[in-house]
Amino acid sequence: MTRFVLRRVAQGVFSILGASVIIFIITRLSGDPVVLMLPPEAPEALVTQTRERLGLDLPVWQQYLMFLRDAATGDFGTSYRWEMPVRELILDRLPATVYLASAALIFSLMLSIPFGVISAVRRGSWFDRFAKGVAMLGQAMPNFWVGLLLIIVFAIGLEWLPAYGADTPKHVILPAIALGWYPVAAQTRIVRSAMLDVLDSDYIRMGRSVGVPEGLLIWKYAFRNAAVPLVTMMGVYFASMLGGAFVVEVVFAWPGLGRTVVEALFARDFPVVQAGVLFAAVMFVIANLLVDLSYGLIDPRIRHDR
C-alpha cells in the first residue's frame, strides 16, 4: 500500500509541475504586461526599470525557477493590477467560488440521484428515455450557453431571478444550475449503471421474495450500495467545478476566483493567472489522488495491479 500511495503522489507532483510549466509559458506568450501598466508616452528608462522591478528582464527559465521557489513557500508574488499579494487576493475571492461550486454540486446531485435511480428501476420506460435525453443534452450544451439561456428566460423574460451579482441566496441559483448542468449527465449514468447492477443481485431478489416494501428495498438497500461509485467521484466533480467556474463566473458577474483570473488574463497579470490556474490544477490532482486511494483501500487488487 505504501508503494501504491507513493507512486500516486509522485504522479500527482509531476502533473502539477507540468501544468505550471504550461501556464507559465502561455502567460508569457500573451504579451508584455508593462505595456498595459504604463502609459504609451512613458519613457524607455521607466519601462526598463519596471521590467527589472518585476523580474521580467530575466530569462524565462530563470523566471520559472524563481516562481517555483516562491510558490513552494506560498508566495505567488504581487498582483500587477490589484497591487496586493496574490495569496491574499486568492483567499479573498476563493470563498465565493467554493460557495458556487458547492451549490452546483448540490443541484447536480438533486437531479442525478432520482433520475439515475428511477431510470434503473423503470428500465426501458418513458422516464428512462427522458433521463437519457437529459443526460445527452447536458453533455451537448456547454455551461456558458446554458447560463445565457437561463438569463434570457428567467432573468430577462420572466424576471424571476437576478442575472448577476452575489448579494442574496437568489443570486446563486442561475449560476449554480449553469455550472452543475454538465455533471448531471455523468452522475446520472453512474447512478443508473450502479443501480442496474445492484438490482440484479441475489439479496434484492431475496428481499422481494420475502415481501420487503419496494421503496425500502430500493432506497435503503439498493441505493446504499449503488452510491459507492458516486461518492468516490464526488471529489473529482467538486474539483472540476472549482476549476471550471471561470466562464460561468464571467457570464453571471460572480465575484469569485475564476472571474478574477479571467480579468487578470486580459490585464496580463501573470502572478494572478499562474496562481489561479495552478490552484485549479492542484485541486484536481488532489481529488483524483483521493479517489485512487479510496479505490485502493476498497479493492486491494487495484493497488497491486497498478
From TrEMBL:
Main location: membrane
Name of protein: ABC transporter permease
Transmembrane segments: 12-31, 98-121, 142-161, 173-191, 230-255, 275-298
Xref: PROSITE patterns: ABC_TM1
Domain ABC transmembrane type-1: 94-291
Gene3D superfamilies, A to Z: MetI-like (1.10.3720.10)
SUPFAM superfamilies linked: MetI-like (SSF161098)
CDD domains in UniProt: TM_PBP2 (cd06261)
Location in the cell: Cell membrane
Keyword Iron appears in the UniProt entry: no
Keyword terms of this UniProt record: Cell membrane, Membrane, Transmembrane, Transmembrane helix, Transport
Membrane topology annotation: Multi-pass membrane protein
Family: Belongs to the binding-protein-dependent transport system permease family.
